[in-house]
Amino acid sequence: MSIVAPKLSMLGPDECLQIHRxxxxxxxxxxxxxxxxxxxxxxxxxxxxxxxxxxYIPPSLVExxxxxxxxxxxxxxxxxxxxxxxxxxxxxYFGPGSDTLRYLDPRSGERRDFQLGDIADxxxxxxxxxxxxxxxxxxxxxxxxxxxxxxxxxxxxxxxxVKPIVFVCDDLADMQAIAAMAAAVxxxxxxxSGYPNLLLYSEPSTPxxxxxxxxxxxxxxxxxxxxxxxxxxxMMGGTAPVxxxxxxxxxxxxMLSGLVMHQLKNPGAPFLYGHGVHHLDxxxxxxxxGAPEFxxxxxxxxxxxxxxGLPVWGYAAHSDSKVIDGQAAADAQFSVLVALMARTNLNxxxxxxxxxxxxxxxxxxxxxxxxxxxxxxxxxxxxxxxTLALDVIDEVGPGGQFTSHRHTMNHWRSLWNPDIFDxxxxxxxxxxxxxxxxxxxxxxxxxxxxxxxxEPLPSQAQNEIxxxxxxxxxxx
Length: 476
Description:
This protein is of the alpha/beta class. The protein has 18 helices and 22 strands. The strands form 7 sheets. A 4-stranded mixed beta sheet has the order 3-4-2-13. A 4-stranded mixed beta sheet has the order 9-8-21-20, covered by helices on one side. It is globular.
């Protein structure tokens, strides 16, 4: 039996090596600013040249970091040793993005500021959707203390899903509090390190700078073997060269410099490769999500990750549209197809609208359908005696029918069937209320918010989380 599937490729070994050498040249010649003494000390002891807060990193340190970083790692279901996601460079998973300012409320249709309850509602929807592999913090809640909203986000996610969590936080104090909450559920910090259900999303500051806060979080995660992606977001024409190749070389250099510090702190700690090259629309000055250049950068990231032997951070199902419309659906389909074919492994931003300013749970439900439709296309098909069905064709013969044949009965369920998209003829569609796809999405989203139940946390873990939140709010 052979499996045939569509393929997407872009960079060969020579092009990957060219980008790698360009990035190493940036690190050796131009260097990076590291605004953390701990990071500078690690680099200096390893042989990097320092001039104040500027570190010049030799290629030998990059090669050593790439050699020690693991080729794969796992994320686990909440409070268990059950693998939820295998980040091995092969599997492709999807989840939402983080920290948007506005919430597109499916109940009222209102666009408004996030509340903590909105995060809980949306995370329950994500917990129920089979094509969503992980959750993320989605929005900035305005009804909790500003200084500790990242901690409240994380607690809301812990309480409303058993899926792995990708989280964002402000500084080392946030990082420590969030790790303590996760450890309370896991059964202690050693258990959390051994079976992590969380991954930190952190960023260098493009161009070529690691803030004190980002570096401290990065090194804390390395120390405790908490998975991390330290993924820059170079903006072509803004914080990066306007050319895609130059922006990718810059972002790759920033990622590699973070990896060097991470692996110097704890060789073998889990690290997810990635960069988020965007570009500025020079007419609107908007950072663009729905663009072919953005998707080309995703393919380049995927292939550089494979070149390095690292699993890859990705993006999918985001749009510059302000509402769920044809533009949003086209952007989602385009990016989901690229993610599945390029095999970026952990793809975030499902549900992003308005170029990352607004989050929509209805967009997430639509994307779940798009992913489920696109996976079979990318997975391809088997060609063997059973699928060629020559005996069946001979048995049915000219003028016959295959509908009642056992071969059809054995295989028809392997064909994709929609959950939300409608295939009925016009008369039956009208008889069922003439609901268009947006109406069906809204109905399903609200139903999941109301009806989906998540196993509650143990009372001891709940109490520890509440205590940590209270202590943080008191200080804030």
